[in-house]
Amino acid sequence: MTDLKAEVGVFGGSGFYSLIDGLEEVKIETPYGLPSDTIAIGMIAGRRVAFLPRHGKHHHLPPHMIPYRANIYAMKQLGVSQIIGPNCVGSLQKNIKPGDFVVCDQFIDRTTGRKDTFYDGPVATHISSAEPYCPTLRKLAVEIGREQNVTMHDGGVSVCIQGPRFSSRAESAWFTKMGWHVVNMTQYPESILALEQEICYVNIALITDYDVGVVAEEGSEPVSSDEVVRVLHANNDRVRSLIVEMIERIPETRDCPCASALKYARMG
């Protein structure tokens, strides 16, 4: 354990470190193993913030190997009550373009074998995932993004695939025909584990490409890792600016359902 505390947690890429004042890095052990890396704690916009790169500093953890439970539990140990979880996603719909942001409100889980609950017994605990993302943080993210002239999509279904491979054309075309909006590899179980710890969680999805089922209709080349990285780097400043403004304006008191998510979840 550590004596350091934080109010807000951020998962993301290594470019965020430069924004943290008075940075201290701490190693935290949890009952679920070590988190993805050491956690950087410092001040942003007058708030104490804990930052953790979900893939590790050197991006050495593929999506299916990320210790999601350890990452969320470490944030809980630090006192974090709100988490901002940006990630890169592929678009499944033509009107959602590379460079746009989607603030998701629903997910579809297509992963297998991931440890996706803290509650293996002896008390049966059934968290509601009807509204998996914090409504307060979602509204704030959309509002600030639009103030900053970012194309923001308010709501969207994120389908989380197992990875580390990208989708086949058939899988991607199926996702599109189902009406889902974006595809990624990390949104599950990160968001629902946060809810199990009564932590508010918001996803900010940066569109890096059209997924292969969409480009197949137009005869374009499928997505490559190089293209994802190029679009990500081109939009890093916009992502950071949005997150910093969110941290400054997150309400100090919580009146959302996330704060009492376990109230009716336990049987017995």
Brief rundown of the structure:
The protein is of the alpha/beta class. Helices cover 28% and strands 25% of the residues. The chain has a single domain (8-267), classed as Rossmann fold (3-Layer(aba) Sandwich), CATH 3.40.50.1580.
Topology record:
Blueprint: E1 8-11, E2 21-26, E3 39-44, E4 47-52, H1 68-77, E5 82-91, E6 101-103, E7 106-110, E8 124-125, H2 135-147, E9 152-154, E10 157-161, H3 169-177, E11 182-184, H4 187-196, E12 200-210, H5 212-218, H6 225-249, E13 266-267
Parallel strand pairs: 1-4, 1-5, 5-12, 6-9, 7-10, 10-11
Antiparallel strand pairs: 2-3, 3-4, 5-11, 6-12, 8-13
Helix pairs in contact: 1-4, 2-6, 3-5
Percent of residues in beta strands? 15-25%
Write down how many β-strands occur, each being a DSSP E stretch of 2 or more residues.
Answer: 13
How is the main sheet built? 11 strands, mixed
- What is the CATH topology descriptor? Rossmann fold
Name the CATH superfamily classification.
Nucleoside phosphorylase domain
Counted by DSSP, the helix tally is 6
